Amino acid sequence: MARFLWICLGGAAGTGARYLLAGWVQRAAGPGFPYGTLAVNLIGSFALGVLMVIGLQTELMSPTVRLAVTTGAMGGFTTYSTFSYETLGLIQQGAWGSAALNIGVTLTACLAASFLGLAVGRWLVGMA
């Protein structure tokens, strides 16, 4: 149960960091493109790569700290980092087809799910 609470605490910190960083970048760069989200996804993908190497290949982090920082903080910061890390894992294993499938399905299905969510939301509030 303690591990779960540490992951939740990390998630809250990551979510707060995402909100602050994305907002700051977006204000600095202007409204023409989602620069804040792009910055969060790039930083999160880089940071998760570094943290996973440190957490899995050294003894600098206990398993609980690794989970609190990766699953918790980085998961709250951006789930795109996990997508990137897992896709690279498939590529490193030589599973190029699975990696391409993950990219294609994630992109297509998530966009479709967002479209469907918008439609259902509009229907629910009587805007359909």
3D structure, described in words:
- The chain is mainly alpha-helical and 128 residues long.
- It has a domain of 77 residues.
- The chain is built from 5 helices and no strands.
- The termini are far apart.
Give the ordered list of helices and strands.
HHHHH
The overall pLDDT average reads 92
Tally of extended strands? 0
Fraction of residues in β-strands: under 5%
How can the largest sheet be summarized? none
State the end-to-end CA separation: 44 Å
Number of helices: 5
Radius of gyration of CA atoms, rounded to a whole number: 17 Å
Q: Helix content range of the residues, please?
A: over 70%
Structural class determined from secondary elements: mainly alpha
- What overall form do the CA principal axes indicate? globular
Task: Record the SSE blueprint.
Blueprint: H1 2-29, H2 35-57, H3 63-77, H4 80-92, H5 96-124
Helix pairs in contact: 1-2, 1-3, 2-3, 2-4, 4-5
Which key phrases capture this entry?
single chain, 5 helices, 0% strand, 128 residues, mainly alpha, globular
In short:
Helices cover 84% and strands 0% of the residues.
